[in-house]
Amino acid sequence: YCGMVAIVGRPNVGKSTLLNRLLGQKVSITSRKPQTTRHRIMGIHTEGDSQIVFIDTPGLHMEEKRAINRLMNRAAASSIADVCMVIFVVDGLAWTADDEMVLNKLRRGAGERKTVLAVNKVDFIKDKEALFPHLETLQQKFAFDDIVPISAKNGTNVDRLLDMAKACL
Ligand code: GDP
Ligand code: MG
Question: What is the ipTM of this complex?
């Protein structure tokens, strides 16, 4: 039985906003300020007699000098251990060294888990076609099971992520 899904990604890509959207309520604090989520936040989506536990992780950090960053990285890494699916959230407008680092962690830790790339903040992107080359590059970086352009803020395609999570129950 498998009902846990981890939401990973660097700070500020919209992980907490996505969790709230998936659950339809505000359980995780979102903020323009990076590092707002400092602990693992879990939320349970219940439908009929099935449940999916979504885990919002603190953003992963390159910079491990500060103790709080080390702790946050550890919390994020340990939350991948028990899940059946990982949603890797990136910002549709920016790919950074921090994203690359999260991807490297995924390469080492994802194993057989279903991995979905959620390209967030597409509501921000006026020229949607400009996104395609970017998506292709990302697909070449890692064999994601799926790539879904989303807007955690507006809810665009968030139902697709939920369907994929349900499919691993
Ligand atoms: P986290 O650090 O990855 O948990 O990111 P948050 O969920 O706290 O979001 C960081 C910032 O991005 C906040 O200001 C959010 O309102 C904003 N944000 C998140 N999702 C979206 C989205 O789909 N579209 C837009 N335009 N902004 C978003
Ligand atoms: Mg957060």
Answer: 0.99
